[in-house]
Amino acid sequence: MRQALDRAFGVTARGSTIGRELLAGVTTFVALSYIVLVNPIVLGLAGMDRGAVLVATAVAAGLATLAAGLFARLPLALAPGMGLNFFFAFTLCAPAAAGGFGLSWQQALAATFLAGVLFLAGSLFRLRSRIITIVPAPLRSAIVAGIGLMIAVIGLRWAGILVATPGAYIGLGDLAAPPVVAALAGLGVGAALTVRRVPGALILAAATSGAVAAAFGLTEFTGVVAAPTSLAPTFLALDFGGLFAAPTWVAAVLVLLLVDMFDTVGTLVGVGSRTGLMRDGKLPGSEAAFAADAGGTIAGSVLGTSTVTTYIESASGVAAGGRTGLAALATSALLFLCVFVNPLLSLVGGVPLGSETIYPVVAPVLILVGVFMMPQVRDIAWDRPLVAIPAFVTVVGMPLTTSITNGISAGFIAWSVLHIVAGKARETPLAVHALAVVFLILLGLE
Fold first, then answer.
1. Is 204 inside any structural domain?
2. What pLDDT tens digit does each residue of the chain (446 aa) get?
3. Per the domain annotation, does 228 fall within a domain?
4. Which domain covers residue 299, as residue numbers?
5. Does residue 325 lie within any of the structural domains?
6. Within a 10 A sphere around the Cβ of 77, how many other Cβ atoms?
């Protein structure tokens, strides 16, 4: 068996061992396992059944990671992406009056399915790189950073650290309130463990907040494992008819597609560089990895979860020595087992604080994930107004409006208009100008 695995995955050829690969797979799982509990909370805000979402998240992540391991032969882990789940709940499913698309969660699942199909087509026909290169690099970096800042701000609100303040819009919350103390305890532990490069810092942060919240009597611990919850509430719930009747369905699919592409490309480049497998700027197996990503999104939408994407936490497994798809198989097996952890949802639920509902167990994870996404801003030439202004409105537009679409729209429009004003319109692909017009029209429709 060991020899067969070695030959199948090229373990020895890549300078690794089977034991090291399995350890790397476990390390990656520990680093990203928080999504199994966070995703049901986020999508639950859109009206989805949290238990069903937990099972859908675990199964979709397990299937996509398994495909990446078997076909791409890379130590990658895939799961429903942070940022894309917030776009699903807070933009796609938000009322039009609040700046959202006004879709039901069933229609949002249909949009996710279509984005996955387009991503898969782009991977199979190698169109992905052409589409990505159309979007200016500064805007790509700003989109990732903007999503990170939005997630962090939501995390600060869910922690009760930031609250709505009359006159000043936002201010400091009651840091002595028990739910806030629980969130701060988890945030402190998570930050300290992150600095020490401890694998699983995020899940340990959540565990710390959960323990403190339970000690205050804010949440109820009902166990760790139980029989999986039924998928019936979300399985095959896609509503294509309702989606196509919505005037903004094209924008919904387009944003899902673009954000997933940027996220996946950035992760593959980062992880590929750390493995030492990059050849002439390309990562062997990357097209298969893109296909696994797209296939995971399609499967996830059918099961009942948001867009599946490649996780940067895969880098933790690489740091532990992972070099082959065998590590991904180990991660996949553990993700499938997460269908049994439904009782933990009772520990991460909302806690009332004044007129707000906060989530002290989930909040530290969101804040730290937001921090991890901010390094993208270093790739933006902030001393060049022609680049800096569109990048800035993209970054701040997302957290200020709690909308990824608004941030992307503002960035494209500003980029196009300023390049035209500066007499440099031809330096930007025609498709970018066309997208700016589309986003301008869509903002008007809202």
1. yes
2. 777 887 788 888 888 889 989 999 999 998 899 999 999 999 999 999 999 999 999 999 999 999 999 998 989 999 999 889 999 999 899 887 777 889 999 999 999 999 999 988 877 776 665 666 678 889 988 988 898 899 899 999 999 999 888 776 788 899 999 999 999 999 999 999 999 988 788 889 999 999 999 999 998 778 888 999 999 999 999 999 999 999 889 888 988 988 888 777 767 766 766 666 666 656 777 788 889 999 999 999 999 999 999 888 888 888 888 889 899 999 999 999 999 999 988 888 888 888 888 899 999 999 998 898 888 899 899 999 999 999 999 999 989 888 888 888 899 999 999 999 999 999 888 989 998 998 888 776 55
3. no
4. 2-223+233-445
5. yes
6. 36
Q: Which residue has the tokens 């997630």?
A: 151
Alpha carbon distance 96, 113 (integer Å): 22
Q: Which one-letter amino acid corresponds to residue 65?
A: T
What are the structure tokens assigned to 44, written together? 């639950």
Q: What is the pTM of this model?
A: 0.86
What is the total count of domains within the chain?
1
Closest CA to 109 of 249, 229, 237: 237
On whether the CB atoms of residues 418 and 170 are closer than 8 A, the answer is: no
Q: What is the DSSP string of 75-136?
A: ---EEEPTTHHHHIIIIITS-GGGTS----HHHHHHHHHHHHHHHHHHHHTT-HHHHHHHS-
Q: Is residue 201 assigned to a domain?
A: yes
